[in-house]
């Protein structure tokens, strides 16, 4: 937690109130905060401030805003990922948010276990978005969308995301073309499930405007490949 | 598990025997293997082969080697990381191995909790190395070293790793210089603990030949920053 994210409702009087138990515990345990300390606060969907702690009690910490602070920029990327198992999903959401992904789309695919769509985590995405924002020092949540049917998504939605200025790359081990690097334009990146997309899916993605590109001959887990690809693509930022 | 890693002892007769319960279970549960299926086998520290399954019983799967296969290349990088908490350590080891890090050094630092050095995981590193190799399809374990004292490491060991042809970069948020990208030479990368290196440590690293470089103004967790940095540095591979 590198900033404390507050709801706009919590920042409408002169002093702002931190009341979430999770945040208060973190401030006590990890930062041992005291009255007078400075603290970075983000307003969800809004600005970020440097503040000073003016009051600490058991269930509330009050701060006074001092000055506006910079919000980190987003990466101009739409990340499309075949829904992973629930444990991986949590990390994936947090990491995508921390790294600054603008838009995240979770899709079905042949090798995605149907039970994954039943996980309670899908109802708690917002919590993991908050954790990711607080890690990064960001305040703006990415758009997250879910598509439970592969073909309609690829045929009807995906083409609307692709243009000459904003290509789409699907990571695929069995191709000569390499994933680009150090790009300076927006793009869409598509990551398959453990075991990869099946040939029918790769073909459909290519038919609908995606470029299949390789990341070399190491097979990397979904949660690891996301920072790896983003670091590679946006290395000039 | 994208290859099954065997000990050289298991590959000395004409047929090779998979006997580890973990591997046999995986082959049954995830791949539903049958006699006649082909299977990728790596010999730890040696070559990688395409094999065919010739016998399946409860506690043993026997395979016949068909032909030699390619081992993925390593990244020419020495990764130095302040020892993270045990849960993060497991992922970090697996990811570093999967991504092809040649040499991994875990060090102490002011913000590393001393109790982390007592974790039983440090006695099980080899298990997580195996999982990382099996994920990547690699057979060669990286060198892993542990240094429990920061100053002697930085003053006596680190300088021997650095040369004009192989610089060392320490990720540090408060610097203008950016982490390079798309490099085509070996290097050393140093990642601090949660909360970062303290100023004394950064100064000592710089005094001993490191370049402090920034990764932008998002604060990224240790386990996420490693693939992010490696993707950025070695994007031409």
UniProtKB/TrEMBL annotation, chains A, B:
GO terms for biological process: rRNA base methylation. InterPro entries: Alpha/beta_knot_MTases (IPR029028), RsmE (IPR006700), RsmE_MTase_dom (IPR046886), tRNA_m1G_MTases_N (IPR029026). Its EC number is 2.1.1.193. The keyword Methyltransferase applies. One of its GO terms (cellular component) is cytoplasm. It catalyses: uridine(1498) in 16S rRNA + S-adenosyl-L-methionine = N(3)-methyluridine(1498) in 16S rRNA + S-adenosyl-L-homocysteine + H(+). SUPFAM superfamilies: alpha/beta knot. Residues 73-231 form the Ribosomal RNA small subunit methyltransferase E methyltransferase domain. It is found in: Cytoplasm. Pfam families: Methyltrans_RNA. Transmembrane segments: none annotated. Keywords: Cytoplasm, Methyltransferase, rRNA processing, S-adenosyl-L-methionine, Transferase. One of its GO terms (molecular function) is rRNA (uridine-N3-)-methyltransferase activity. Belongs to the RNA methyltransferase RsmE family. Specifically methylates the N3 position of the uracil ring of uridine 1498 (m3U1498) in 16S rRNA. Acts on the fully assembled 30S ribosomal subunit. This is Ribosomal RNA small subunit methyltransferase E.
């Amino acid at each position: 937690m590198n900033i404390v994210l507050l709801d706009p409702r919590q920042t409408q009087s002169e002093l702002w109130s931190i009341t979430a138990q999770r945040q208060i515990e973190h401030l006590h345990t990890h930062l041992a905060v005291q009255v007078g300390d400075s603290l970075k606060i983000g307003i969800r969907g809004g600005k970020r401030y440097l503040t000073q702690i003016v009051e600490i009690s058991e269930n509330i910490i009050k701060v006074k805003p001092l000055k506006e602070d910079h919000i980190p920029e987003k990466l101009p990327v739409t990340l499309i990922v075949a829904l992973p198992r629930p444990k991986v999903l949590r990390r994936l959401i947090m990491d995508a948010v921390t790294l600054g992904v603008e838009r995240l789309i979770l899709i079905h695919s042949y090798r995605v276990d149907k039970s994954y769509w039943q996980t309670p985590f899908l109802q708690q995405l917002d919590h993991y978005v908050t954790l990711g924002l607080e890690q990064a020092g960001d305040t703006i949540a990415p758009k997250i969308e879910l598509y439970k049917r592969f073909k309609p998504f690829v045929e009807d939605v995906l083409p609307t995301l692709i243009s000459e200025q904003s290509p789409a790359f699907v990571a695929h081990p069995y191709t000569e073309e390499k994933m680009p690097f150090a790009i300076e334009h927006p793009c869409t990146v598509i990551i398959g499930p453990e075991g990869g997309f099946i040939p029918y899916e790769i073909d459909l993605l290519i038919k609908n405007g995606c470029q299949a590109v390789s990341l070399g001959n190491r097979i990397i887990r979904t949660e690891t490949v996301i920072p790896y690809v983003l670091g590679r693509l946006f290395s000039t930022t």
